[in-house]
Each structure stands twice: as C-alpha cells, then as structure tokens.
C-alpha cells in the first residue's frame, strides 16, 4: 500500500529553494542598473556593515543602500503581500478569479492617495490616506452586503458590493483628475495610479512593515483552516469552523496587506491574481503550503519585474503597467496549460 | 448516546414555516431514513438539526443537553454532515479533503498532526478507499466522491452522521455498496439519519423511518410501520404495492413496486 500521503509532506529541498530564491534574486538585482555595482562591491558593503573599515566608494554606497536596497526590499515585500492577499481572497470567496481588487480595496486606496496628492500631504500623508480609504472601501462593501443580504449567497453579494464600491471610488478619482492642476497634480496622480517603486525610500519600508506583519501573521497561522472556507460556509461550519469570524479575520488581514502595499507603491495589478495560480500549479491548492509558496514566488516575481521596469528602457516603465502586460498573457497560459491550478 | 429532537421548527419568514413541530429520537447505532417528496423540507430539517439554520422553535438535544448554545467545534464532535454531492472549487488531494474532517480536533492555529493523519487513514480504510488518497478530489467519480465525503465525516469522529441523499447520483452497484457501508457503520455504533427518495433503500437499511410532507411529520416508527402502501400514496400521490419477495436463501424481502394504471 502506497503510504506517502500519510506522512506530513515537507520536501526540505523545496523549502530551501523557496527561501533562497528571493535572496539570490535580490543579490543579482543589486548589481543591475545604470550605475555598475559589482559583487565585490556588495561584499565590501556587507563587510562594511560590521567592520568600520571599507573602501567602498561613496557613490556605490549611496546606490546600494539608499537606492537599490530599499527598492528591492519594497518589491519583495509588496510582491509577497499582494500574493498572500490574493490567495486569501480567492479562498474566502471560493473563486479562483478573485483578486485584491474585488472588495474595492485598490480603488478605495487609490482614491485616498489621490486626495492626499491633490492636497499636497506628502508621502506619509499619501500612505495613511490610501490605507484609511482602502479600509473604508471594505467596510462599505460589507455594509452594502448587509443591506442586501436577505437572499442569496454572501460571496456573490460581497463581490457585487465590491464592484459597486470600486466603481464609485474610481469615478471619484476621475472627478478629482478632471479638476486637478494639469501641470503638477494631474501627472503625479496619473503616475501614482500606474504604480511604481521609483521613489521608495527606507522610511517607506519601515512604515509598511508593521501593518504588513499584522496582516500576514494571522493568515499564516490560520492557513490550514483557510482550506475549509473553500468548501462553503455550511460544510465548514458542520466541521467545526466559526466561518463568520474566520472570514472576517481573513478579509481584514488581506485588506491590510493590499492597502499597505498600495499606500507606498500605487496600483500594481495582476500580481494578486496570477501568483496564487502559479503557486497552486507548483504546490497544489492546500493553503498549508500554498501561502508560503505564494509569498516566495510573489516576492521573486515582483522583484524581477521591477528590475526590468527600471533597466529595460532609458526611462523607467511604470511597474503597474509592466505587471499587467506580463501578467495577463501569463495568466492565459496558466489557464490553458495547467489543469492543476484550475478546476 | 442519544439524539432527541423536540418540536423543531424553522422558517425564513414568520408564519411561513419550512418545517414545523418535528420531534424524533435516535438511539445509538440506529438508522433513521427520512422520506418525503421534493420540497418537503428534508434538507432544511437536517440543516436545522446540525445548527446550520437557526431553529425558531424547539430543541435539539444530544445526550440530554440542548445544543443551541454549543460552539461549532463542540457540535462538530457530536454530529458529522455528509452533504449532497457538490463541485469543489479547488483540486485538493483526497487525503487533504478527509483531513479537513479533523478540524474540530485541531487547535485553532495548528495544522493536522500525525494523529490526525492516522485517524484520516483509518476512516478511509473503513470505507475501502485508501487507494484514492493521492488522487485529486476533482477528478474522481461521483461514487468515490460520496465515499470521500463520508470518510471526511468519519474522521470527525462524531456520534451521529447526518446524510443528505447519500445514494443520489450513484449507479445501482454503488448505491447498494453505500447502503451496506451505512449498515456496517450503524453496526459500529454510529447513529445515522439519512434522507432518501427510495422506499426500498429504507427497507434495505431497516431501523426507523420518518415521512415528511409539507414540512411536517406524516408518520414515524419502524420502517415496516411507515413504508406502507397508504403512506406512500399519501406523500407521492402514486399507487404502490408492497410485495414480499422470497430470495434464494429462503428469506423474505419487502419490496416496493409502483402500480401502472
């Protein structure tokens, strides 16, 4: 009798590869860019952290520590956050086509950022405002859901509510754009809506790490139970899950992840939809491994795409545009080639 | 172990009860078949018993204790639910699906342990489906899926199994095999409440039967008392004859034959 399925399966090799992948890619990405940085420079920078003496040039030091490291960290963190958030939303809504945009989170956060830009609230103001309106959007979606809850299943109603809220917020963004100062504010808003990591600084990263940890830790702890939500509320309840509470926790955490990402990077689409599918193709649908794999793959993916975005052309390509251009065809490929990831 | 249902009612709107005044008792190792036409309220009754729907009247009492204030986790340790065949959204492996039945026994922030794997394996062995363990739940047949859902409920280690039309969508051979599994599980001490559209299946399983019509109990008792020509005519509106067929070993078997006018 084949017995493999009954031992908790952990391929050590797989874990090592998944942990090392983003780290290796980060080191490679450090060397890529307009200003040449060699592996020797990276070594010097690293040793310089621990020993006072380092003959690294001042320019290289600035490029490594003030330009590339914040940007690389941001790409990895945001890639992880958007992917985990997307995987969690797909499970809670029992729908593999769902992404963080579904509850109007992104549109709400986008509106918040637009208001901050038009009022010149500075980068911290943009982040906080994006975050607050992202949460407000989810709350509105929930509120609308409760208004029309009477019949039908909660998933469909929340998705409908999310579309409504998303439409309202994107209309408001258009309204603000139409009255914005066309020489200064309008380009800033437009550029921000396209998504970019071009102006990331270390302080942005310090700012998003706490909310991201608050979002990601409960999801990782509850990841096995997330599986049960995919079987629908009644079945999950009959197996002993308090589905209302679990779903609320998952939605709040996933929203927190999306809103914090959007608050520093602008709108970066498709990552939350495509990466969980890709991860599912690698490891199967069990959230026990799906969430960690989504994190590793999502972080690596966004890092690679962002590195392309800043190096491919003489000018920087907005990251959000590139993720969409890569994500959409890749998604079609996944859907047509992998039965594993799709029913 | 006993399950007692007292005067149970459920309604979406007041004054329009879907089920009303349902009372019954199920002892350890007993099978209760619930019969009734489409829309009689069988599934609603089951979901109300399981606490998935909130009863607006009446009580569900397990071991002398009213379960209306029990947590989901406590309820799940008492009652397992085998829903009607369904299409899952994601292609889990069969062993993962069975393991999900262990949820009520697993700490909130934990994943299944070696013990949980062992219980899941035993549940699958009990139903002879260990060979399915590594297959994808989305790619097995309807009959196999039904057995996986039962294994999942068994992994829950409940005292009572509530099965909603367990034989629907199964071919003839699988129907009989499934009924044999049900009889065997009852023999192991599990109480079983199941709905069926086949009077013959109730007769095959023995034990008790209940007939539902328009959300109310028409009659209840032993299968022999309940499955009668008059009662079947009453709930389904067709003429039926109950015949005693003698099979090769000399035993008599009651069977249900529709009469063509």
Outline the secondary-structure elements.
The complex is a heterodimer of chains A (343) and B (261).
Chain A: H1 12-31, H2 39-50, H3 58-92, H4 105-118, H5 122-147, H6 154-179, H7 185-194, H8 202-221, H9 223-229, H10 233-238, H11 243-265, H12 271-283, H13 287-311, H14 319-337
Chain B: E1 2-11, E2 17-27, E3 31-35, H1 42-49, E4 57-62, E5 65-66, H2 72-78, E6 79-82, H3 94-100, H4 114-126, H5 142-155, E7 160-163, H6 172-187, E8 191-195, H7 199-205, E9 208-213, E10 216-222, H8 223-226, H9 229-236, E11 240-246, E12 252-258
Parallel strand pairs in B: 3-8, 3-9, 6-7, 7-8
Antiparallel strand pairs in B: 1-2, 1-4, 4-5, 9-10, 11-12
Entry summary:
With 343 residues, chain A is mostly helical.
Describe, in plain words, how this protein is organized in 3D.
The complex is a heterodimer of chains A (343) and B (261). With 343 residues, chain A is mainly α. Chain A has one domain (37-43, 63-337): ABC transporter involved in vitamin B12 uptake, BtuC, CATH 1.10.3470. Chain A is 75% helix and 0% strand. Chain A has 14 helices and no strands. Chain A has helices spanning 12-31, 39-50, 58-92, 105-118, 122-147, 154-179, 185-194, 202-221, 223-229, 233-238, 243-265, 271-283, 287-311, 319-337. In chain A, 48% of the residues are buried. The model of chain A is unreliable at 1-8 (pLDDT under 50). Chain B is α/β, with parallel strands linked by helices and 261 residues long. Chain B has one domain (2-258): P-loop containing nucleotide triphosphate hydrolases (Rossmann fold). Helix content of chain B is 32%, strand content 28%. Chain B is built from 9 helices and 12 strands. Chain B has helices at residues 42-49, 72-78, 94-100, 114-126, 142-155, 172-187, 199-205, 223-226, 229-236; strands at residues 2-11, 17-27, 31-35, 57-62, 65-66, 79-82, 160-163, 191-195, 208-213, 216-222, 240-246, 252-258. Chain B has a 6-stranded mixed beta sheet with strand order 6-7-8-3-9-10, sandwiched between helices. At the A-B interface, helix 9 and helix 10 of A face helix 2, strand 6, helix 3 and helix 4 of B.
